[in-house]
Design brief:
55% helix, 148 residues, 0% strand, mainly alpha
């Protein structure tokens, strides 16, 4: 059987393939534009130490109010750290939720600040020696990170 040379060409020997199921994105009750707009509009006016304190409290609250997400995080951590005892897994999970909240606390404020202010919070770029040759090449590359 000959294959069509172009996707628009069809053969009579085979039926069209069914469409793949539509992917459903993960959401939760705390994932809404109102909360993000409130945080984004107020964050630049709140001192960083206060933002981080609020972020830590909210992370602990959300972790307790989102047991499925907490369980998924713990499973992943236990997989990554197979010799860790349950107390260590719990501590790392709590830390992960908190650091994710800290990321948002900075995201909602530092990205609206002048570059000079942003530079005060940049302590180090890890593994930049691996990136520099890519920047100098004409090849291009993809970076996947939440902290760029």
């Amino acid at each position: 059987m000959a294959l069509p040379s172009h996707p628009s060409e069809t053969t009579t020997a085979s039926a069209p393939l069914p469409s793949p199921p539509r992917r459903k994105w993960y959401t939760h009750s705390y994932d809404g534009p109102g909360l993000y707009q409130l945080a984004a509009s107020s964050a630049p006016w709140i001192p960083r130490v206060v933002r981080f304190t609020c972020a830590r409290v909210l992370a602990d609250l959300y972790r307790r109010r989102m047991p499925k997400e907490d369980a998924a995080v713990r499973r992943n951590i236990a997989h990554i750290l197979p010799t860790a005892d349950p107390a260590t897994v719990a501590r790392v999970a709590r830390s992960l939720f908190r650091h994710f909240a800290y990321y948002f606390a900075d995201l909602f404020s530092l990205n609206r600040q002048p570059f000079a202010v942003q530079q005060r919070y940049l302590h180090a770029i890890h593994n930049f020696d691996r990136v520099q040759p890519l920047l100098e090449s004409s090849q291009g590359f993809v970076v996947a990170t939440a902290h760029l």
